[in-house]
Amino acid sequence: MSTGYVAVQWSRHKRVYDASIAIGIALYLGAFVGVSKVLWQGAHGISDEVILIRALGSCAIVLLHVILCIGPLARLEPRFLPILYNRRHLGVITFLVALAHAMLAIGYYHGFGVLSPVRSLLTSNPNIDSFRAFPFELLGLGALAIMFLMAATSHDFWLRNLSASTWKRLHMLVYVAYGLLVGHVALGALQTDRGWIGPALMFVGLCTVSGLHIAAGLQEYRKDRGNPTTTPDAEEVTWVDVGAPNEIPIDRARTVCAPGGERIAVFSTGGTISAVTNICAHQGGPIGEGKVIDGCITCPWHGWQYRPQDGCSPPPFKEKIATYQVRIVSGRVQVSAKALPPGTPTTPVRIPGDMP
Amino acid sequence: MADSIALAILWTLATYGAAGFCFALAFVFRGIHCIDPAAEHAGLSFRIILLPGAAALWPILLRRWILAGAKP
Ligand code: HEM
Ligand code: FES
After folding, report:
1. Which residues of B make CB contacts under 8 Å with A?
2. The model's pTM
3. What are phi and psi of A277, to 5 degrees?
4. A308-335 pLDDT per residue, tens
5. Complex ipTM, two decimals?
6. CA–CA separation, A178 vs A188, rounded Å?
7. CATH class (in words) of the domain with range A230-350
8. What are the residue boundaries of the structural domains of chain A, listed by start?
9. Ligand 2 within 6 A of A300 CB?
10. A270 C-alpha to center of ligand 2: Å?
């Protein structure tokens, strides 16, 4: 949260996370090179450089699949949340692996001629109008450019200074990059003698990514439609039914959707119930998928914290999110559909029969 | 792609990038304070981490810097 910037906000979780990724990448590259050496021997032998190019390229694409899948996965199954929380480091690491792949490929396939390697990359294959012989490397170059922009702007400074909407749009380009890479792998396979395993796996990956996105979207849609039992009261405040108090998991939230479509995260902690907006002030992360840590609601994406009673970050931080009035009527928790201005204190309601 | 087009693209990119890099150096040590006060006491590693992005997006930042400088 913002009291002044640091390069990386390290925490124990992030160190473990990054170390696991580094070990995972090393194991993958080692296994890929080892297996390739065994598979392609003698007359079918391929050079170490090409093996390494393929190892790095496929490693980057695997990481990209993880990045694209954890969003919807965490929505469908909260146990995946710890992977989501630090996705940014994963993104930067993926870019670096892809960069190593690209530099090695350019150096190896284009580095030994009279033209400078990048000039050769742009000019060596003029078949832009052909499908089979299309310069697939240019698709990789486009994806790499997008990945660079995303990695370079991943620090919170950019989120704040490019405005959240520009930043979000920029980072949605990851889907464009993914599309370009599907082409890079598929067309590349047509032109190099790599066999069908890579493209087949890419197809499986494509189905997984789209399937998960559709499933998560459907679940969200059903939740929104199934949810609101609303009761307007005498003062025209609409109250949305949340369920019985004990249906909200302790130190976690149940998310409901107000008639206007805003999502409200209703938390149960310390025997009381309080409600805040589901949208994190940081990057719009789903607060309702987070949990209460040290008495503060903690966003699952990057760990920003808010006090349940007033939606304020604990000092010295200054972030605020909207809060909502809560009440319990005949054994049902209800939340007001009207958002209070960010940081407005509310009185958390005590769950009847739950001693403090 | 024709070689002349490729050369034109490369030269444009190289010029843009070189200008961007010079701008980025000035920006992360000076201009940044005009557009984001929270960066006032930030350390060196934070500034270095912003260099690539500042070199790539320098026209946007330059505009922000000029606008911020106009109304101090
Ligand atoms: C300038 C950018 C790039 C260039 C010049 C480039 C070049 C290449 C080349 C020449 C191959 C074929 C290697 C061979 O089998 O002989 C290849 C394959 C591949 N590339 Fe790239 N690439 C670039 C960017 C990327 C990026 C950004 C990614 C992913 C994030 C990527 C992922 C892959 C994958 C998954 C393969 C297939 C590997 C396999 O089938 O084992 N490439 N690339
Ligand atoms: S902490 Fe980043 S979105 Fe909530």
Report:
1. 1-3, 5-7, 9-10, 35-36, 38-43, 45-46, 48-50, 52-53, 56-57, 60-61, 64
2. 0.77
3. -65, 155
4. 999 999 887 888 999 999 988 888 888 9
5. 0.91
6. 15
7. mainly beta
8. 12-223, 230-350
9. no
10. 23
